[in-house]
Fold this sequence. Notes:
The structure holds 2 protein chains of 2 kinds. By secondary structure, chain A is α/β, with parallel strands linked by helices. Helix content of chain A is 38%, strand content 22%. Chain A has helices at 16-27, 41-53, 64-76, 87-102, 130-135, 151-168, 178-182, 250-265, 268-271, 292-305, 323-332, 346-354, 372-382, and strands at 10-15, 29-34, 57-60, 80-85, 107-115, 121-125, 144-146, 171-177, 184-189, 233-235, 274-277, 284-288, 310-315, 317-319, 335-340, 359-363. In chain B, 55% of the residues are buried. Chain B has a single domain, classed as Rossmann fold, CATH 3.40.50. The longest helix of chain B is centred in the last third of the chain and has 20 residues, at 261-280.
Amino acid sequence: MPKIRSVLTGAHFMNGDVACAEGAIAAGCRFFAGYPITPATEIAEHLSQRMPELGGIYVQMEDEIASMAAIIGASYSGLKAMTATSGPGFSLMQENIGLAVMTEAPCVVVDVMRGGPSTGQPTMPGQQDVMQAKWGSHGDYGIIALTPSSVQEMFDLTVEAFNLSEAYRVPALLMGDEIVAHMWEKVVIPPADKIKIVNRKKPNVPPENYVPFMPDDDLVPPMACFGEGYHFHATGLTHDEHGYPQTSSSEVQSRLVRRLCEKIQRNSDKIVKVEEVMLKDADVVVVAYGIVARAALSAIRRARDKGIKAGLLRLITLWPFPEKNVVRVAEQVKAIVVPEMNCGQLVREVERAARETPVVFLSKLGEEPHTPMEIFEAIRRSS
Amino acid sequence: MVQEMAHPFSKYLRAEVMPHIWCSGCGNGVVLNCFVHALDELQMDLDKLVVVSGIGCIGRTAGYTNTDSFHTTHGRALAFATGVKLANPELEVVVISGDGDLFAIGGNHFIHAARRNVGIKVLCANNLNYGMTGGQQGPTTPLESITTTSPYGSIEHPFNLVHLAAASGATYVARWTALHVRRLTQSIKKMLQKEGFCFVEVLSPCPEIFGRYNKMRSGLEMMAWFKRASVVESFSDPSKAEITAEKIAVGEFVDMEKLSYEKMLHEKISKINEKAMEEVG
Lengths: 383, 281
């Protein structure tokens, strides 16, 4: 039996960055390119040790622009690939996140959110990149972003991010924060055969019949990789189904860009994940995500103890936005409370979906996330 | 009856995307032609060849070659190619791109790919300006040249690309012009057979844009400059090989053996695995 295992089945005590790295390995990731940045560096450090053990590639690139480009290259060479960064690096990656979207390269980008803008507060948590996750690269596109609330989810959702990126040929973003990344908690890693793994669809036609960007019914085209004899072309330019540039056809532009948006939107029921806690009879619901959702959970329990019918809708998927779930909640409650560690980002989406239902926004910036008492007070005032 | 003859190199090119976008008198066709000749003479396995380009006139080359090919964002061809090569070292990865793409916006990626000695083969068409966007000054524009953004003459010192490549660690460095088709083809063949990071620069005429502003209105006039000024100085000091109106030093400047990044990496991987097996006993 080889001593080195790819899936570390068992119970562990580890931090969120390490859990994320192990999740990537368990998902089949064998290529990591990155650039050191607080508070995501431990992901790179851990993978620089683990990847060579497994015959995988760890490469430290010259910057985050290069890291993002390299994982697209590795993805097109057939490996599952990931990079990890924080706000400043995430900004630099936006250019090639657009390239991955346009060329439909499956890959995972981890953004361990810290305080911004600019260099901001490297060692403090934040949730200030959630709109950048959706809109950061120029042009229109659909994207998938998940947000972990625990170290266990840093593992689980990294696996899920790989599965979704492979299924929909789109970059999947894991939007962690400094607290879930640096916190140590118990993580249970299941046996390898109990971990669901999704791999990209491969073409089932000979090379001469392969049309690289011809989608199936799910709007996702099967993907050949370099070196498999398909001789295909891919470009960041607007392209037809053959992959060839069509830079002055409005028809091709419309067909391609609408498909890139719709392949996510139309499949959103399959993609979206939320956690619903005591929603059934709730009068006031907290919509929260990431580390803040942990304080929110505590707050709704306290509210229930005080006889207030409070519930929690925890968003695990940020993008595509869990619109239907918020609409359902908005139809039944008196008010929605949205605590975020920013000046008001995802709350705008909640307000849009909530329509007439009042939405109370709780903003927090800096060292401390919301306390359960702060969220409880907002619930009490709204009930 | 006139019989239609297949182009002898049709298997290397994508007929469906022709005609190409290049102006008459442009040297990019020569660069592509020499590349294809090199592939043919070496009988390269086209299934294992990946051509990567950045943005610019020559950047369209990836789309024209009938191999696996990828057209990246501006400047990122080498970073993308690094991912391709490391993920599958069996692939022959060639980056064909321009001076602006590789040395201005992509300059950082160039020096680091060369420093790491990743086995990527770089063929750079240097047309001394940004052709695709209409002729702005770039990192290779000679001093005092007129461009659409240096209307009073450029006051920026240009990069000497062979010196930069040699200093950054490339294992093979050569410079030719679009006039030197046979020697250029030989250099491309040589780099395709070498290990590690290799760099071939080709001075490529841009008469429609660069030439128009600098008293070389036709491709022939630009070629005449290359002919007049080129001096073969193989293995001379690349730091002294600046391109001037009077002299263009051409030839091979570096040809050495150095273990590539991917070989070193895979040696490490085998050692780690051996050690792990020993520990298990």
